[in-house]
């Protein structure tokens, strides 16, 4: 992204984040922090090609999206996977297995039996095999988010964008997410051992301090690249301190 202004999903002409200069490389593990309503979800949707920026240049895998024809645009966009917040926007009228099969069948123009082997492979790697025939509504919230991740992995993305995946998760679930995403970044069997770029948007930096490689902050419609873990530790930005849930001198409550 070069001088990108991210549009608000509910108001496409209005910028919710301004002046983003940002490069994500394969194998990077980015943590982007911001308070509720700061535009994190809109940033991820823009990065994935689902929203047009108000202005600026957005390249995905080297191609400027707004200059591509529809076929080329869709081909580039399929290389990025987005795990939505709010339990992943799953289809509750379908089983877990059918949710995973859907993108494979849609983009491959095939039927569910033809992709069963791939679906079973993803379910096994994500620890969801026992839930294959259940509907998302019948499993707990943390596991619904994991089903959304499994669905995003179906098309073997080279870039994976995740919206607050460990919010309200218990410690065991948080540990699973952090370990699994770290292994995807390094090269996991579910993605043919290919290193994957990871971007996590969060309102709490604390779970990601040991795994994130690069950190950025959204505050007051502005974008700030903080840098590495050591640079994060040295940053005195008040908004950052809030996302680390540290007490700010002189501030109560």
Provide key terms for this protein:
253 residues; alpha/beta; 6-stranded mixed sheet; 3-stranded antiparallel sheet; disordered C terminus
Give the averaged pLDDT, no decimals.
Answer: 92
Number of strands: 11
The whole-angstrom Rg is 18 Å
Shape: globular
Class from secondary-structure proportions: alpha/beta
Q: Give the CA-CA distance, first to last residue.
A: 37 Å
Strand order of the largest sheet: 7-8-9-3-10-11
The secondary-structure element order is EEEHEEEHEHHHEHEEEHH
Low-pLDDT ranges: 247-253
* Annotation field: number of helices: 8
Helix content range: 25-40%
Major sheet size, sense and barrel closure: 6 strands, mixed
Strand content bin: 15-25%
Strand and helix map with partners:
Blueprint: E1 2-8, E2 11-20, E3 29-33, H1 40-47, E4 55-57, E5 59-60, E6 63-64, H2 70-77, E7 80-83, H3 96-108, H4 116-125, H5 141-153, E8 159-163, H6 171-186, E9 197-202, E10 214-219, E11 222-227, H7 229-234, H8 238-243
Parallel strand pairs: 3-9, 3-10, 7-8, 8-9
Antiparallel strand pairs: 1-2, 1-4, 5-6, 10-11
Give a written overview of the molecule.
- The chain is α/β, with parallel strands linked by helices and 253 residues long.
- The chain has helices at residues 40-47, 70-77, 96-108, 116-125, 141-153, 171-186, 229-234, 238-243, and strands spanning 2-8, 11-20, 29-33, 55-57, 59-60, 63-64, 80-83, 159-163, 197-202, 214-219, 222-227.
- Helix 3 runs parallel beside helix 5 (141-153).
- The radius of gyration is 18 Å and the shape is globular.
């Amino acid at each position: 992204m070069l001088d990108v202004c991210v549009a608000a999903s509910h108001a496409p002409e209005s910028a919710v984040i301004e002046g983003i200069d940002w490069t994500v490389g394969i194998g990077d593990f980015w943590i982007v922090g911001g308070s509720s309503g700061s535009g994190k979800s809109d940033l991820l949707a823009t990065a994935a090609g689902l929203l047009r920026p108000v202005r600026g240049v957005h390249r995905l895998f080297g191609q400027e999206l707004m200059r591509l024809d529809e076929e080329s645009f869709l081909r580039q966009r399929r290389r990025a996977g987005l795990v939505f917040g709010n339990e992943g926007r799953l289809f509750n009228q379908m089983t877990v297995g059918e949710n995973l099969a859907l993108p494979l069948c849609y983009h491959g123009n095939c039927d569910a039996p033809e992709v069963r082997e791939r679906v079973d492979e993803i379910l096994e790697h994500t620890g969801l095999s026992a839930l294959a025939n259940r509907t998302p509504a019948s499993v707990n919230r943390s596991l619904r988010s994991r089903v959304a991740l499994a669905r995003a992995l179906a098309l073997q993305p080279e870039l994976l964008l995740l919206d607050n995946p460990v919010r309200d998760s218990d410690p065991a679930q948080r540990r699973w997410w952090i370990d699994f995403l770290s292994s995807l970044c390094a090269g996991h069997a579910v993605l043919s051992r290919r290193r994957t770029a990871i971007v996590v948007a969060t309102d709490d930096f604390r779970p990601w301090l040991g795994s994130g490689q690069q950190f950025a902050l959204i505050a007051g419609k502005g974008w700030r690249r903080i840098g590495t873990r050591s640079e994060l530790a040295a940053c005195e930005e008040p908004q950052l301190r809030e996302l680390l849930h540290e007490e700010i001198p002189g501030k109560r409550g």
